[in-house]
């Protein structure tokens, strides 16, 4: 069931009064196809590119002039409703302050050939002009473009590529504060404690609105956003309408750099500045109380953000639109990314027997769409395992007993035999012998009894494991098996064994030999159950677990992270490592070539299909220190039904979220994060080592592999090509390689002999220099 807040825009629709629209060309001879029609409030009138006489060729551009600078974060495109002709297919979006300097595109992508409204998101920023460029017609019916209506969305409170400034030494003052009846001084907004607060004076005669609170950073800083955390202890004083102004001297404050109205709830709010400003003082002025309860204002915490330094916080590329919500993804051996949703591009339900899929070419960025019918399988909410030969096995979901295989070598889908047990939300992993293991999955099919079974690639059939009952591995979710056996964290090891290390606090060793067996492996240190958290293997026999919650939804997530070391004994050793800065459930984690782990998205209070309580700041965990470091913030929330994957160039794809039909939280897009190991402070790319010469396409476990590079390197790593859905990617793992240096740029690599260490399948082979900068990967099949 879709929550009510999923139906509300995450950013306000900007008022269009005074706006104008112009186009590269428009049809005025044979119909009223003027650009102005996209702003008239009627879907019955349209802009259409010139088609009478000689049609104007693609591309076509449509530019909206707001005649004022505003923070804008998305363009909402409504295709014409009376015909398919002219529906925009591939597109690019630019913004400008002066209509002369347009800079790099802020978004691009491919739209589905249908009449539904499309929200094309990008990083929130100040602009006067927004330009949509259509580079293809969705159905390739002709050289045409059309639009019924164009809307723009304003500030979602989540500017991209910013990081919080350190508040050490800062002070705060207010127009008034309550210090008689309670200790609600302005200084509380900087103390790091969300349970203390500033409150306007209410004892005696309450101070009237407006109220202001001013932060003194003690020196000039570049500032681009303010974050407001409402009080936790009650609703009174939540800020409604507000303005933000800045000053260099504390006396003269200029025109507002941000203004708006915040929703009457306790979620953290943001205000993106219309431009980055250099200031010492930043003032938040509350002009209304959000609920109209009284003449009060309050705040638990205030933070200020600055544009991110790419060398320490990484950077985000433009938002790429997909013709579907990418709920599941797999990195393919041919430098492509496979994605799929359900029977619909933006919704699910029933067992329809087909799936909407898309493939992104990682070299060109082009995205193509296909509906897969031949396997009679709606692959929404599946289990996924990447097979030894690079094919992708997808099981269950909406068609709960079905199993399908995608072969990247032939770009073809085929059916394999049905599972013995119908499942949805199950967990899968490849085994060391090349078989695939599945467990759990009570979301679809009957609830409970989702015991283990194994698929053999040699026979294409499933074998039950009566000795692997799911009950031993479940959480204590109050919803019972329907939620308690979902999205398990599985790590394949030697001899066909699997460590089930979550989300239940109890860990278990699973044997898949014969009838199978389950043996308790202790608890994950002091962790509670952590549903919708995840685990990733960052080194040989070493995993990091992140976040999660004690129930599937509607409970507080955790900031905690744990390491699990398989060691050499019977019991793995689990220990708490540094906490994340943000509590996360529904997040995704990715291991990088250097062994660090990046975590993206998630919510502090998990609610499916909602963007509330989103964690928009990624973090990277360093195994050498056990600490997390904040990265540049994301432009789009990534929560339930989102994904993340390491790409062959060492960057990371993060996308998806939603799939709730006609709601505001469908995110049919993704963006690529460039980690700081690739960047200089000015955003340019650091010099990379290059793997030169020939690398074998397939190597056996225990083989030695000669490799040459263009410059000296200090380490090599294999990272298995992953497949992600619902926060889990069980086949993802990093295997650092031992090697012999033959010369300054010639090496012999040693592939682990144990297939439980170097699991069979497709790997990204990276070389890293002494500064930790990785090469672009070569694809290698192991096993």
Automatic annotation (TrEMBL):
Indicate what this protein is called per its UniProt record: DUF1929 domain-containing protein
Residue ranges of the region described as Disordered:
1-33
The protein's matches in SMART domains, at most eight in alphabetical order, are given as: Kelch
Start and end residues of each F5/8 type C domain: 1-136, 147-309
Name the source organism: Streptomyces anatolicus
The record's listing under Gene3D superfamilies reads: Galactose oxidase/kelch, beta-propeller, Galactose-binding domain-like, Immunoglobulins
User: SUPFAM superfamilies given for it?
Assistant: E set domains, Galactose oxidase, central domain, Galactose-binding domain-like
One matching Pfam family: F5_F8_type_C
**Which domain of life, per UniProt?**
Bacteria
Q: Which PROSITE patterns match?
A: FA58C_3
């Amino acid at each position: 069931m879709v929550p009510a807040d999923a139906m509300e825009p995450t950013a306000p629709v900007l008022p269009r009064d005074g706006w104008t629209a112009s186009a590269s060309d428009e049809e005025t001879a044979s119909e009223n196809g003027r650009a102005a029609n996209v702003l008239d409030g009627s879907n019955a009138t349209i802009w259409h590119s010139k088609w009478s006489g000689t049609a104007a060729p693609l591309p076509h551009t449509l530019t909206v002039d707001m005649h004022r600078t505003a923070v804008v974060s998305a363009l909402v495109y409504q295709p014409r409703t009376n015909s398919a002709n002219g529906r925009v297919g591939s597109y690019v979006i630019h913004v400008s302050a002066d209509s002369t300097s347009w800079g790099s595109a802020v978004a691009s992508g491919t739209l589905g050939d249908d009449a539904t409204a499309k929200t094309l998101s990008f990083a929130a920023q100040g602009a006067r002009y927004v330009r949509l460029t259509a580079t293809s017609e969705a159905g390739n019916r002709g050289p045409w473009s059309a639009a019924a209506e164009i809307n723009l969305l304003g500030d979602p409170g989540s500017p991209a590529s910013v990081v919080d400034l350190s508040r050490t030494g800062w002070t705060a003052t207010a127009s008034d504060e309550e210090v008689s009846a309670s200790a609600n001084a302005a200084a509380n907004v900087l103390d790091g404690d969300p349970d203390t607060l500033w409150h306007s004076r209410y004892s005696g005669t309450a101070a009237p609105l407006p109220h202001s609170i001013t932060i003194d950073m003690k020196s000039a800083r570049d500032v681009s956003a303010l974050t407001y955390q409402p009080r936790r202890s009650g609703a009174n004083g939540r800020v409604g309408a507000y303005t933000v102004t800045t000053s260099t001297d504390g006396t003269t404050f200029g025109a507002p750099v941000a203004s708006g109205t915040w929703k009457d709830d306790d979620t953290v709010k943001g205000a993106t500045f219309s431009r980055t400003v250099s200031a010492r003082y930043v003032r938040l002025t509350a002009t209304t109380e959000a609920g109209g309860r009284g003449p009060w204002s309050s705040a638990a915490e205030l933070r200020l953000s600055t544009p991110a330094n790419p060398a320490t916080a990484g950077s985000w590329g433009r938002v790429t639109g997909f013709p579907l919500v990418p709920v599941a993804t797999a990195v393919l051996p041919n430098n492509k990314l496979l994605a799929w949703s359900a029977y619909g591009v933006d919704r699910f339900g029933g067992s329809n027997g087909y799936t909407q899929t898309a493939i992104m070419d990682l070299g060109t960025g082009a995205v193509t769409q296909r509906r897969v019918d031949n396997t009679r399988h709606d692959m929404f909410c599946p289990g996924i395992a990447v097979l030894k030969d690079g094919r992708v096995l997808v099981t269950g979901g909406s068609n709960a007993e079905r199993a399908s295989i995608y072969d990247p070598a032939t770009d073809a889908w085929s059916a394999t035999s049905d599972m013995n047990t119908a499942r949805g939300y199950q967990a899968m992993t490849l085994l060391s012998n090349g078989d695939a293991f599945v467990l759990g999955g009570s979301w679809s099919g009957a609830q409970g009894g989702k015991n283990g079974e194994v698929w053999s690639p040699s026979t294409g059939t499933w074998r039950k494991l009566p000795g692997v009952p799911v009950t031993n591995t479940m959480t204590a979710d109050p919803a019972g098996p329907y939620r308690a056996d979902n999205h398990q964290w599985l790590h394949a090891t030697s001899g066909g064994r699997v460590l089930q290390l979550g989300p239940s606090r109890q860990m278990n060793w699973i044997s898949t030999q014969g009838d199978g067996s389950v043996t308790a492996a202790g608890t994950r240190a002091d962790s509670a159950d952590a549903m919708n958290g995840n685990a990733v293997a960052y080194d040989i026999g070493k995993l990091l677990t992140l976040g999660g919650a004690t129930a599937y939804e509607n409970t507080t997530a955790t900031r905690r992270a744990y390491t699990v070391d398989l060691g050499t004994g019977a019991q793995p050793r689990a220990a708490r490592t540094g906490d994340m800065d943000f509590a996360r459930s529904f997040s995704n984690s990715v291991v990088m070539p250097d062994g660090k782990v990046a975590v993206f998205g998630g919510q502090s209070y998990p609610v499916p299909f909602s963007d509330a309580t989103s964690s928009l700041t990624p973090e990277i965990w360093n195994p050498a220190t056990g600490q997390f470091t904040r990265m540049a913030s994301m432009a789009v929330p990534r929560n339930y039904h989102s994904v993340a994957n390491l790409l062959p160039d060492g960057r990371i794809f993060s996308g998806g979220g939603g799939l709730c039909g006609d709601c505001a939280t469908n995110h049919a897009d993704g963006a690529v994060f460039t980690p700081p190991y690739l960047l200089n402070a000015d955003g340019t790319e650091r010099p990379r080592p290059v793997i030169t010469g020939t690398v074998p396409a397939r190597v056996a476990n225990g083989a030695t592999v000669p490799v040459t590079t263009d410059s000296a390197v200090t380490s090599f790593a294999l990272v298995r090509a992953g497949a992600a859905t619902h926060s889990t990617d069980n086949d993802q793992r990093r295997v650092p390689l031992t090697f012999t240096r033959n010369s300054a740029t010639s090496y012999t690599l040693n592939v682990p002999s144990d297939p439980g260490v170097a699991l069979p399948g497709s790997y990204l082979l990276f070389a890293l220099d002494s500064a930790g900068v990785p090469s672009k990967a070569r694809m290698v099949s192991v096993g």
